[in-house]
Amino acid sequence: MESTKSAAAKKPAVKKESGIKNSSPVQDSMLLEFFHGELKDIYWAEKHLVKTLPKMTKAATSAALKAAFTDHLAQTKVHCERLEQVFGILNKKPQAKKCDAMDGITKEGEGIIEETEAGTATRDVGLIFAGQKVEHYEIATYGGLVQLAKTLGLQDCADIMLQTLNEEKKADEGLTEIAENDINYQSSEETKK
């Protein structure tokens, strides 16, 4: 019978950092393939937002909301560039795969614009809702991708996407602040014509 000590000695040593394995990813691992697929998905989502945010900016009435959307457009372009860096680290060509979730969220935003009256705080409330749904989807996606990158030993990828995750969280907080500071109250006083 083998002692516990000698059995433990036969196990390969694994470096751990906060419980995360740090090693080179297995090139044919299913997790790496899933990670790559999710990168394609969020890359499509970010590229789609580059086209959508100007429409949201144009539809907004509040100067603060217009500025938030304009600022986030510039950030979104950087997010696309960061994802291209991640693809590069993986030795993969940047490729987008249609993100059904983001497509649905942005279509819902278009519906809000169509169903609300131009120049009203109520439309701005709706745009904030749409914007926050986008941010929450991105926060969930980047949060998951950061953790997967760490699990796969892709710390460089995790660090790049963590920057984006933090910016998405700040964008969400900014939209909440705009809503709470003025727009929600203005909207509550608007009446149907």
Question: Please, could you describe this protein's structure?
Answer:
With 193 residues, the chain is an all-alpha fold. It contains 6 helices and 2 strands. The model is unreliable at 1-23 (pLDDT under 50). α3 (63-89) runs antiparallel to α6 and α5 packs antiparallel against α6. The chain has a single domain (27-182), classed as Ferritin, core subunit, four-helix bundle (Ferritin, Up-down Bundle). It has a two-stranded antiparallel ribbon.
Throw out a few tags for this protein:
elongated; Ferritin; mainly alpha; 75% helix; disordered N terminus; 193 residues
Order of helices and strands: HEEHHHHH
Largest sheet: 2 strands, antiparallel
Q: Quick one: CATH class?
A: Mainly Alpha
Structural class based on helices, strands and sheet pairing = mainly alpha
CATH architecture: Up-down Bundle
- Overall number of domains: 1
What is the residue-averaged pLDDT? 88
Radius of gyration: 21 Å
In the CATH hierarchy, the third-tier topology is known as: Ferritin
Output the strand order for the largest sheet. 1-2
What is the CA–CA distance across the termini? 86 Å
CATH homologous superfamily name? Ferritin, core subunit, four-helix bundle
What coarse outline follows from CA principal-axis ratios?
elongated
Number of helices: 6
Q: Assign a percent range to the helix content.
A: over 70%
User: Residue ranges: pLDDT <50 for 5 or more in a row?
Assistant: 1-23
The count of strands amounts to 2
What fraction strand? under 5%
